[in-house]
Amino acid sequence: MRRFAVRTYGCQMNQHDTEKVSNLLHHGGWRPAAREDEADLLVVNTCSIREKAEHRLYSDLGALRAWKAAAPGRLVGVGGCVAQQEGDEILRRFPQVDFVFGTHNLRRVPALVAGAEAGRRRAALAEVRDPARFDLPERHPAYAGATPGRAWVTVMEGCDMFCSFCIVPTTRGREISRSADAIEAEARGLAAGGVREITLLGQTVNAYGRHDVRRGRSQVPFAALVRRLATIPGLARIRYTSPHPIFFDADLVRAHRELENLCPHVHLPLQSGSDRILEQMRRRHTRDDFRRLAERLREARPDVALTTDLIVAFPGESDADFRDTLELVREIGFVDAYSFKYSPRPGTRAAELPGCVPAEEAQARLQELQALQRGLTLAAHRARVGQATEILLEGASRRPGQVMGRDPYHRVVNLSPPAGLDPRPGELLPVRLVEATPHSLIAELAVKETHGQADEAKRRRAESVKIASRTGSFSA
Ligand code: SAH
Ligand code: SF4
Ligand code: F3S
């Protein structure tokens, strides 16, 4: 039996691509290795969003020379966004690499592996405009997927936005949407197989179908797609990531009011709170547009949890621009944020811009922003103590003896399962939140609640309201 392992970097799209490649390899007779040193094939699925991410590949490849030499016949494959970008150059520079596959060429992996076994070193990098590239075999019976009870479903891929800082339009190519029928069929199949939560994936997921709708093809707007999927029996939760603010139409906002199984969490990248910088970033909206969108979402769904992505030290970002970001972040009260220092990407517009922010200044801004967000996150968590919610169990927690799952707001919730109860990953569990920490919430199983616990929860709730009113209020 031949064994494979995959190292995955980058976003959920890349993680899902790893699942797709793993499934294809299963169909080709491969099975996962328990550890990399038991593998015959190692695939590195790469990310190039920031310089550091890209450098991971080069440091990995250095170490993989020894891995490859340790046993005869071992193979190394490189895929993902760096592969798409660098292509043949990777084969040229790194003799330890046997094959390279770009982001449109997942289906070629089994053939590339077979070629590599026969001694042929190749790169498959062609742009594939045909949505048939999404037609992949069903889950192999021996492959359960990486996430019990949950699944990603690609609805569109690529990006035509060309934000000035971003490499993704180069590495993922032009926007392509799958047919709504194919998406629905996949979602129905997953639900029938016990999946309770699907996350719709796309680089600008809510731009789904926009080119096709205009050309009169069969696709529907994103909100209509969500509405179709929401009727599938057994699907308790629908999520999507990442939407772009400018494609948030009234119907998608309304869907958050109307659809019970559409999760009350929206990851809505803001990037900057300064109009000047937003313009330089080519985000095509203002801080006010964003603020109004957040308000509309909260009107539709008062408990909605908003999370975001932010970039500090974009070229030319002044201290005043950065203060604008801090102010808007505080005002909107994101429940969580991923924040990054700007990293110039070769070939992007922003890489040509003057006004590089000195490294120490960039670091100081990042720290200030992250400190602000830590406070906001903790306050949001505290405001929820005492609430009843439901978690979809993912597995063992980082906290010893506990299990973890996520609630509908996408918060991590840890739980000590009562003795004798052995909840399994993929199960939905009713819980009551009893404690807030900076990174997660702690819960008790709701069905086991005793009077003492209820009193304790009430006391904590009263306390958290006090804290929330001290720090500015939260709707989460
Ligand atoms: N498609 C998503 C973003 C995908 S990339 C969207 O449109 O928002 C994830 C995040 O990485 C981005 O939201 C941005 O905050 C960050 N990012 C992208 N390029 C970057 C760069 N050159 N430097 C620093 N952060 C970057
Ligand atoms: Fe990158 Fe902008 Fe496209 Fe998002 S919308 S993937 S940030 S170019
Ligand atoms: Fe990285 Fe490519 Fe995703 S650059 S963030 S893996 S789309």
Q: If you had to describe this structure to a student in words, what would you say it looks like?
A:
With 476 residues, this protein is α/β, with parallel strands linked by helices. The protein folds into three domains: 3-124, Methylthiotransferase, N-terminal domain (Rossmann fold); 131-377, pyruvate-formate lyase- activating enzyme, CATH 3.80.30; 388-471, Nucleic acid-binding proteins (OB fold (Dihydrolipoamide Acetyltransferase, E2P)), CATH 2.40.50. The protein is built from 15 helices and 19 strands. Strands 2-1-3-4-5-6 form a six-stranded parallel sheet, with helices on both faces. A five-stranded mixed beta barrel has the order 15-16-17-19-18. α5 (109-117) links the parallel β5 (99-101) and β6. It is globular. Mean pLDDT is 92; it is low at 461-476. Iron/sulfur cluster is lined by residues 159, 161-163, 166, 168-169, 203-204, 244.
What topology emerges from the helices and strands here?
Blueprint: E1 3-8, H1 12-27, E2 31-32, E3 41-46, H2 51-69, E4 75-79, H3 80-86, H4 88-93, E5 99-101, H5 109-117, E6 122-124, E7 150-154, E8 156-157, H6 168-172, E9 176-177, H7 180-192, E10 197-201, H8 210-214, H9 222-229, E11 237-241, H10 250-258, E12 265-267, H11 275-281, H12 287-300, E13 305-312, H13 319-332, E14 336-341, H14 359-382, E15 388-396, E16 403-406, E17 412-415, E18 428-436, E19 441-445, H15 451-471
Parallel strand pairs: 1-2, 1-3, 3-4, 4-5, 5-6, 7-10, 10-11, 12-13, 13-14, 17-19
Antiparallel strand pairs: 8-9, 15-16, 15-18, 16-17, 18-19
